[in-house]
Amino acid sequence: MTRLPAKFFYMKNLFSAVLCITFSQLTYSQQYISNMSDDSSRIVELKELTIKSLQKITQQKLIAFYKANNAATLEEIMSRLPEISLLRRGSYGMEPAIRSYSAGQINLLVDGMRIHGACTDKMDPASIYIEPMNLEHLQVQTGVTGFLNGSTIGGTINFKLAEPSFEGNNKISGVVHSGFQSAAKSFYEAMQLNYSFSNWAIKAGATYRKSHNYRSGSGETINFSQYEKANYSLSVKHRLTSDVFIKADLLTDDGWNIGYPALPMDVGYASARIASISIEQKTNTRKWEQWKAKLYANKVRHFMDDTKRPNVSMHMDMPGKSTTYGGFFEGELKLAGKNRLQLKADASSNYLKASMTMYQPGQLPMYMLTWPDNRRDQIGIAASLLLPLDSSAKLQINTRTDFINNSLLTNEAKSQLSILGYTSSEKTKLLKNLSVQLYKTLNKNVKIISALSFTERAGTASELYGFYLFNSSDGYDYIGNPNLNNESSFQGEITGVFNLKNSKLQVTAFYNRINNYIIGIINSQYSTMTNGARGVKVYNNIGAVHISGFEITASAKPINRIELIATLKYNYGIDNKKQPLPFISPLKNISSIRYLAGRFSFQLESEVSAKQTRFDKKSGEDLTYGYTLLNARFGYLLQIFKKELQIQSGVENFLDQKYHDHLDWGNIPRPGRNLYLQLKYFF
After folding, report:
1. Nearest CA to 679 among 91, 183, 194, 191?
2. How far apart are CA 42 and CA 243, in angstroms?
3. Which tens digit of pLDDT belongs to each residue from 615-669?
4. What is the C-alpha to C-alpha distance for residues 643 and 253, in angstroms, rounded to an integer?
């Protein structure tokens, strides 16, 4: 077992102290959900700012800081989840990671739909096209069962869209948000409306954000950190019978003038069009608990440019596009006794293309495909069987198989690949996933959940077909390899849930061994394409790597109006040569204390990160110093014309500390002191 560094013991004591002085959410309307079922996912309810865990925690009143304030972006909400960290290249388009798994190692779904980014530099994960107002809840699954929605070794994040409500027939109801934040002089405006009549219900929403270059803790203006975006959503639901509904959803998101201070290029525009139609039955029948069928389509466009950067030696345009069609059926069957079988069958087809045009002074433009025209067709089937063993124990078995075909579609794409010596571009993969979970209640105060799994995933378009993709973190051009083997992972996880008097505690420990790990390896036979690049790396499989860690969540309510919440998380990764894996977060703690008295709320938060001395220099990493952030939040609820008006204000990083996180590319400082004011009116 790996010996923890001395900083852990320092942080352990600090965690205990901070827990006694610091969080909870300040909005009057938020609630905590106490009912938790046995599943390997955590659900963050965004509609009422509450948390549900379908996983292990049977805690009431858990971690309300998942939404820091009404204007919080989806990335800011996710960053507070114990399982999630974010790779940051700018203020926009941060890349989620689940226990240090990211990109193609995890699934990002919108209401069960597959969406693939159109950027070769991972600047547009699916999460950037979703606003918190679009969502009913946010579901996070770790690797032990996160493959039910798609083969993956790292887990799944599913953004469940909000649904129209049939309440308040023939009446318009809704909410209006407005806010300002000082660090980037950013504005946030949003509105959501709901209307129902007869057997129809309609929900529509709009969000607008504009953020300028932000100020760091040292007072420095971080250039190219601005962005602007607009998001619109429409959902129409029709009640066919008392328990059968048909629903259509349309979501559009457009971002423009998006800066990335850690990259050599910015984004001219990033847009998504997401549409679906579904039918579902929500109540029990003789055989089915519930079922749902959906068809969907989405299109993503992304354009990188460097026209606003100074001293550019050679201008480049880098457009990309992604189109996905798919559908799925899922349902839960009743078996003998209390046994239950959850089934899912799904299929999708994704088309990707990205190119680069280089304008060399005095020469003709040079054009090449960075993602040659390629398609991934996928068909999968998954099942989850829940078997009650006795009154205190349950066994859950999860399995999934995916058939995946990757292919290049044009002669131009195939010819470009043949330059690298590859004779075959079409690859077919069969992916296998299996996990077993045991839930055991020892007594009314203690519950244990243990899990073992084997999971697989295939290479991404970049890993298979990428052509001179520049990585600004390590300074290398990357080339794909269509002959990659599947990554596979053996995972073990154990969780203890302890209910004590006026307090709750959950402790999770996990260990993963990943075989055929896919990573870029320096290849001196190739010349660089990008000016100033250090060399060329080709994606290859290496021997087994190991990722382990723990997560601790605690809550306490010493007196009626005061609650304490805290989380502590730590990841540790080594490669096949016993060297540190890149992009592994150090030990982190978030703690809070909230005081609620009638219409008024006040909360203090602290976020503490230890120094990261384990880093991979080959990947462009270096030592990252620890930091401590302190936040204060205030809330008040007014009644105006018999309607509610929430006023939120606060200050984040009120010590104005200059800092950056270990996962921040380029060591770009994060925002300094940020004062905000938010208004939220219900009607």
Report:
1. 191
2. 26
3. 999 999 999 999 999 999 999 999 988 899 999 999 999 999 999 999 999 999 9
4. 30
Q: Which of 48, 153, 165 is nearest to 545 (CA)?
A: 153
Of residues 78, 134, 369, the one with CA closest to residue 253 = 134
Distance CA 400, CA 415 (A): 35
Tokens of 207: 């969000």
Topology of domain 6-221+240-682, CATH: Maltoporin; Chain A (2.40.170)
Residue 152 to residue 172: CA distance in whole angstroms? 42
Interatomic CA distance for residues 86 and 665, integer angstroms = 11
List the structure tokens of 503. Answer: 């307090």
Instruction: Give the angle subtended at the CA of 109 by the CAs of 104 and 113, to the nearest 5°.
Output: 120
The residue type found at 120 is T
| Residue 682 CA: distances (Å) to CA of 48, 65, 501, 637 | 12, 22, 37, 11
The mean per-residue pLDDT over the stretch 129-148 comes to 89
Could you tell me if 79 and 97 are in contact, meaning their C-beta atoms sit under 8 angstroms apart? no
Beta strands 562-574; 588-597: pairing state: antiparallel
Take residue 363 and report the two structure tokens written for it. Answer: 């020469």
What are 594's strand-pairing partners? 563, 603
pTM of the complete model: 0.89
Q: How far apart are CA 269 and CA 444, in angstroms?
A: 54
Task: Tell me the one-letter amino acid at 31.
Answer: Q
CB burial of 613-638 (b: ≥16 within 10 Å; e: otherwise) equals: ebbbebbbbeebebbebbbebebbbe
d(CA 586, CA 623): 11
The DSSP annotation for 442-497 comes to EETTEEEEEEEEEEEE---HHHHH--SEEETTTTEEEE--TTPPPEEEEEEEEEEE
The CA distance from 337 to 342, in Å, is 15
Distance CA 668, CA 564 (A): 32
**Which residues 6+ apart lie within 8 Å of 64 measured at CB?**
23, 24, 25, 30, 32, 49, 50, 51, 565, 594
